[in-house]
UniProtKB/TrEMBL annotation:
EC number of this enzyme: 2.7.4.22
Reactions mediated catalytically: UMP + ATP = UDP + ADP
Record's subcellular location: Cytoplasm
Annotated UMP binding sites: 49, 67, 128-135
InterPro entries: AceGlu_kinase-like_sf, Asp/Glu/Uridylate_kinase, Uridylate_kinase, Uridylate_kinase_bac
Key words of the record: ATP-binding, Cytoplasm, Kinase, Nucleotide-binding, Pyrimidine biosynthesis, Transferase
Key word Chloroplast present: no
Protein name as annotated: Uridylate kinase
């Protein structure tokens, strides 16, 4: 693999407390990113927003407005993780699909290519820029646009299961599953819009648990225990 798109859920940044940021957790993730970047891999990153806000669960609000707050949450997350990545010695750039003044760079494929050529880790913040979408969809969209070799989907659970392992103790984990089957069975790896795009574009995806030690590095090195 030469270029990957890493998706981190918002909750993954929050550690035990489930809200906001946990610096130790994020520093650990940043060090793993440094390891794979130092080995020559180009890394793009999309981060969810669930540690701050989930637009779709806010029933009292207009969905578009709630989703705008969700997209802004993903920008806060990217600014934070980008800065911790700099702290561990990486160069970074945060892109958004809409203007955020001097905080971020406006997304364009050319600008992203320049950034990769300069050895930077590239953050895709702000989702797709549109309500009714998710950062999962933004992940597949950007992965396809930048020609990533694979999506690395780091989750709170360690792979794709036939039912929710938090609810069903007998849930079975798949070592390997086609995205067609994920879509047909509506398995909760990604939301359906993102899964269908992944299927149409034949984008490979590796799903693993972020909690496991060195899981990002191990996944890149082929020592993989999640779902392919
Ligand atoms: N969001 C959006 N459009 C996008 C990406 C995200 O409107 O393209 C909003 C949406 O409200 C979502 C929130 O940002 O709930 C956080 O994104 P994430 O994909 O993490 O959603 P979650 O799965 O945490 O609800």
């Amino acid at each position: 693999m030469k270029r990957v798109l890493l998706k981190l859920s918002g909750e993954a940044l929050a550690g035990e407390q489930k809200r906001g940021f946990d610096e130790a957790t994020v520093t650990e993730v940043a060090k793993q990113i440094k390891t794979i970047v130092d080995e020559g891999l180009q890394v793009g990153i999309v981060i969810g927003g669930g540690n701050f806000w989930r637009g779709r669960t806010s029933g009292a609000m207009d969905r578009s407005k709630a989703d705008q707050i969700g997209m802004l949450a993903t920008i806060m997350n990217c600014i934070y993780v980008s800065d911790i990545c700099r702290y561990v010695g990486l160069k970074t750039e945060v892109f958004t699909p809409f203007v955020c003044g001097a905080f971020t760079t406006l997304y364009s494929k050319d600008a992203v290519e320049e950034s990769f050529a300069e050895g930077k880790v590239v953050f895709f913040a702000g989702g797709t820029g549109h309500p009714y979408f998710s950062t999962d969809t933004a992940t597949v969209l950007r992965a396809v646009e930048i020609g990533a070799d694979a999506i690395l989907l780091a989750k709170a659970v360690d792979g794709i299961y036939d039912s929710d392992p938090k609810v069903n103790p007998d849930a079975k984990k798949y070592d390997e599953i086609s995205i067609d089957e994920v879509v047909a069975k509506k398995l909760a790896a990604m939301d359906l819009t993102a899964s269908i795009m992944c299927m149409e574009q034949k984008m490979p995806m590796l799903v693993f648990g972020l909690d496991e030690k060195d899981s990002i590095v191990n996944t890149v090195h082929g020592k993989f225990s999640g779902t392919k």
